[in-house]
Write a structure and sequence with these properties.
Largest sheet: none
Shape: elongated
Helix content: over 70%
Oligomer: single chain
């Protein structure tokens, strides 16, 4: 594994452990927002936070525990695409309330709360673009080695 792939995986794990933990922590609170129905899934925010938090923690565990880097990158790409799809669906349904991506933890940020949405969009982009790039480079190396092995076999 290349050093930049390793740093990418470490950074993603740190982000996922932090945001997943915050969402699970937020889900067990007693803030009135948690009982309001969320616009995309049609269930209480509490269950959306719990589900997405556990999903993020699960992906982080998969990235930490798996040996195959290709699988790790695929997990990150899938999660990033899921988050992007959620954002697109919110936009398509014209949901105007800001995404509370970090659950009720955004209230802790005070006046910096308005930066949550753009930072989360940047993180989703980072997950998608970086993992897709690393997957492409890995698959390209694998296919090149396979082709080279095939060429050598035909020469003999």
């Amino acid at each position: 594994m290349k050093i930049y792939e390793k740093w990418f995986l470490v950074s993603v794990c740190m982000v996922l452990l932090l945001t997943g933990g915050i969402k699970v922590w937020s889900a067990v609170g007693d803030v009135p927002l948690l009982d309001r129905v969320e616009g995309v899934f049609g269930v209480a925010h509490r269950w959306v936070y719990l589900g997405s938090g556990l999903l993020e923690l699960g992906v982080a565990a998969g990235v930490i525990g798996r040996r195959k880097v290709t699988l790790k990158m695929g997990l990150i790409l899938s999660l990033g695409m899921s988050f992007a799809g959620y954002r697109v669906f919110r936009w398509w349904m014209e949901i105007s309330e800001p995404c509370s991506c970090l659950g009720t933890a955004t209230e802790w940020l005070g006046r910096f709360e308005r930066f949550t949405e753009p930072v989360m969009l940047l993180l989703v982009g980072y997950f998608i673009v970086s993992s897709a790039f690393f997957l492409f480079m890995r698959l390209r190396r694998i296919s090149t080695r396979t082709l080279d092995a095939g060429v050598e076999e035909t020469r003999e």
